[in-house]
Amino acid sequence: MFFHQPKFIPRMIEEQRKHNYDVVSGTRYAGTGGVYGWDLKRKIISRGANYITQILLRPGASDLTGSFSACVSKGYVFQMEMIVRARQFNYTIGEVPISFVDRVYGESKLGGNEIFQFAKGLLYLFSTT
């Protein structure tokens, strides 16, 4: 819990008010955003998932797997579906650069099952949007 730092919320609110966005999302992959504490494998998986999503779904947002309508998705696919559905309904989407610092305690839930669920969700969204 609280893997994303709440210090970015005021900037998200500011962006929403400034541009009247319908949706504002945090992005690790634009501006001053970043990821700290991940090994190379995890960075490649995250970047690769976002790259494939950009090609297939063209969501209009740079980071679909790590930020804060009808939704059927769970896990990492949830945010991807929210952004894609928002774009589908012509909502405006803003992004705020965020930094993600890997957890100090516990372990990531990213494993084979999460990767499979992501691929399944990606194909579902590709075929339904």
From TrEMBL:
It comes from the Eukaryota. The keyword Glycosyltransferase applies. SUPFAM superfamilies: Nucleotide-diphospho-sugar transferases (SSF53448). One of its GO terms (biological process) is protein O-linked glycosylation via mannose. GO terms for cellular component: endoplasmic reticulum membrane. InterPro entries: DPM1-like, Nucleotide-diphossugar_trans. Keywords: Glycosyltransferase, Transferase. One of its GO terms (molecular function) is dolichyl-phosphate beta-D-mannosyltransferase activity. This is Dolichyl-phosphate beta-D-mannosyltransferase. It comes from Hyalella azteca.
